[in-house]
Amino acid sequence: xxxxxxxxxxxxxxxxxxxxxxxxDLITLMGSxxxxxxxxxxxxxxTSFVLHFKDLPPLPISPPTTTLPKLGKIVFTxxxxxxxxxxxxxxxxxxxxRLTEHLGSDFEPTWSPDKQQIAYVSQRDxxxxxxxxxxxxxxxxxxxxxxxxxxxxxxxxxGGTIAFHSLRDGNWEIYxxxxxxxxxxNLTRNPAADTYPSWSPDGSQIAxxxxRDGNWExxxxxxxxxxSRRLTYSLTADRRPAWSPEGNHIAFWSMRDGxxxxxxxxxxxxxxxxxxxxxxxxxxxxxxxWSPDGSRIVISLIRDNNLxxxxxxxxxxxxxxxxxxxxxxxxxxx
Length: 334
Known about the structure:
Blueprint: E1 2-7, E2 14-18, E3 24-30, E4 33-39, E5 49-54, E6 74-78, E7 85-89, E8 97-98, E9 106-111, E10 118-122, E11 129-133, E12 141-142, E13 150-155, E14 162-166, E15 173-177, E16 185-186, E17 194-199, E18 205-210, E19 217-222, E20 229-230, E21 238-243, E22 249-254, E23 261-266, E24 273-274, E25 289-290, E26 296-303, E27 306-313, E28 320-321, E29 329-333
Antiparallel strand pairs: 1-2, 1-5, 2-3, 3-4, 6-7, 6-29, 7-8, 9-10, 10-11, 11-12, 13-14, 14-15, 15-16, 17-18, 18-19, 19-20, 21-22, 22-23, 23-24, 25-26, 26-27, 27-28
């Protein structure tokens, strides 16, 4: 492939592409678009001069021949049935499968580490309780049974513990329990609201959001509830922390710039930077969720007047829409 520039002092200049067989395509600028059209071979007039550049690098005019590796199914909440139900979908947007079908809303699903169980929240008994099911939607088991609301389940990396938030003590606290619902334990014991736990990959720490300093901020504590410390400092909300698989970063939503942006920091709160420009994740953002290899993040954004799932690279680039319908999709877990 070569590029030829023909300059004519008395008229318009021509630019055309020429392939290895000598065929030419005339390139014309129309508005903001370049158009290429075949032209016959002609001898360049003596009153013009030609610059011909050979062996140009390939032009990115064809779809890429490689695809991103598949990193497993994403479980999420959809209101496609006019109430919240739980679905799975491949990370390329294919094979959307419904797992729950109940008159009460089912939401906030989260995978177990071995992808053999899904913990989720259901209102089928009139209040928010945590349940467990297998990936096909079968073998449903109730894990919490108390007269107060529970939510935000999060599996520990080895699968032996589920952290969650509960209102059973009169304010929102972070609890832990075994996967069968036994041995519930209050980890935070603070008069403020503590919600949405996220485990570190080694299982030694838990990130969560709390309003104990007057507005929502991200905190970290040891897995047993000790050594609680504040990670973010903002006059507005920092919410829904998500620990990266390599353990070095935490992603979260922040209103510190006047509108929601997805941010990332290291686990000491340093090197804070936005991953995205201003976005609209809705008034109560879903947690950003990392892919198992840490290369991508799935988020829920309002597009076309409803929430849809998007996948972005871990540096905030290359947004790809995952769901395409007229219903809200949110609460992803990868």
